[in-house]
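Section 4.2 – Deliverable D4.2 (structural model, holo form)

The reporting period included a commitment to supply a predicted holo structure for the target in complex with tryptophan. Inputs used:
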Amino acid sequence: MIKFVLSGIKPTGIPTLGNYLGALKNFVKLQNEMQDYEFLLFIADMHAITVYQDPKELKQNIKNLAALYLACGLNTDNLTLFVQSEVKEHVELGYIMQSITYMGELERMTQYKDKKQKQAHGISSALFTYPSLMAADILLYDAKYVPVGDDQMQHLELTRDLANRFNNRYGETFTVPEPLVSKKGSRIMDLQDPTKKMAKSEEENKGCIFLLDPPSVIRKKIKSAVTDSEAKIYYDKENKPGISNLMTIYSSITDLSYEEIENKYKDKGYGDFKKDLAEIVVEEISKVQKEFEKWYDSKELKQILYEGKCRASMFARSKMKKIKKLIGIGY
Ligand code: AMP
Ligand code: TRP
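Output (structure tokens):
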């Protein structure tokens, strides 16, 4: 039986350095380490529309994200890349998952609570039931491992609960998935407000580095990142969240430990540190951008997405058949 590692990213805006370090770069690393697994990665467009998206922009974002997945260096040999809405079983199982999810479980989700607080009116019911759809994405393929940033841990816990609940009610059906959270980079914070995670949807973009930002913009954003007045470089997330966040970025790209970074900058100030960091980030992202240009608009990308859709659908269809039979729906 094929073993799957599965993950998804929403095509809302341009992916950020947070998505890159917390998710994309980690996928590439895991792919090298777990060669006997097939990687199922998708563009979560059904999740994206739980909040209104301009249709033209959404199309563009889907295309950008598809090209960015590949630009990060994923090995296409054991990769199935697809667009969520093109495999209709996600929504079908999503509905079934909703029918075994309790309201209380959804009300407890911090991501939902945060969004609700920010947006008092016009929250869609799909935003509320989003975690049930996410559970369906994962359980549909019996994925064993799900690499995500740590903001998704709660959703994954719910997925595990739903898998167990379904198995108890209807008989052993789903693999209970396990999260894979990278040690470093699982939570990159906003450069202007390091108590908030770096996210695509913030209106103010100064604290957020996008993967398609030109080098000059990246340098500027890092240079103006908020720090503190102590002017000493060491890791202390509580008292020095700004510098600690920059050290996390530094460390995730170079693989140097915090201690090694502290030693390297023992006698230096924030200015030098930021300057070096800017060059490190620019170099890393420039590589991705060069590859992005090659993939974007290429025939290969179209073909990969087509094959991905067919292959994912094949697994999804056969799983759905079994699920419906167990539940007793259909004639
Ligand atoms: P999203 O953009 O919300 O669809 O997230 C896609 C993936 O990127 C998920 O695995 C998230 O956990 C991860 N991610 C998003 N923002 C960050 C961040 N600031 N730091 C680390 N990982 C992140
Ligand atoms: N909810 C995830 C996010 O916002 C994206 C996502 C949707 C996902 N379905 C998934 C991640 C399944 C992992 C597995 O980041």
